[in-house]
Amino acid sequence: MKKYFTVIVLSIFTFFSCEKDDICIEATTPSLVIRFYNNETQTELKEVLLDSVWEINLYSIEKYNNTEIDSLAIPLYLNQNETTYILENNSVKDTITFNYDRNDIFVSRSCGYKTIFENLQIGSNTTNWIKNISINNTIIENDTAAHISIFH
């Protein structure tokens, strides 16, 4: 009888000492989504051959090197209110500076915080191969829709 009691007590302690597995299934910090359009027919998507896309102070985004695309998703700085990217098309470079406010939101214990970008603005840009830039949405809270339209 003592043997069964010991097994039951150990089983109860083992059961209650287990922790719940925390797996993050919530959305995380969104990327800035840019769509490329034809400058003549501004409702028509137009693919662009990007030689490279890189953030001016840090790194190149390898998946967009030598790629023909009609949209791209790029990350924004989480610890600054400004990010500058250089987009190169046929060896012609354009620089775009994005300004924004950051709002950190607690998602869950497993996911931690995510950042929502608000008041998105174009701080400055060059117009070498890019003809015009339009902001579609000044709040970046998901990456399912385009936030910026670039006409070329």
Task: Describe this entry's structure for a reader.
- By secondary structure, the chain is mainly beta.
- It has one domain (22-151).
- It is 11% helix and 45% strand.
- The protein contains one helix and nine strands.
- It has one helix at residues 2-17, and strands spanning 32-37, 48-55, 67-69, 71-74, 82-89, 92-108, 112-125, 132-135, 148-151.
- The strands form two sheets. A five-stranded antiparallel sheet has the order 3-2-5-6-7, with no helix packed on it.
- β6 (92-108) and β7 (112-125) form a beta hairpin.
- The protein starts with a helix and ends with a strand.
- The relative contact order is 0.21.
Outline the secondary-structure elements:
Elements: H1 2-17, E1 32-37, E2 48-55, E3 67-69, E4 71-74, E5 82-89, E6 92-108, E7 112-125, E8 132-135, E9 148-151
Parallel strand pairs: 1-9
Antiparallel strand pairs: 1-4, 2-3, 2-5, 5-6, 6-7, 8-9
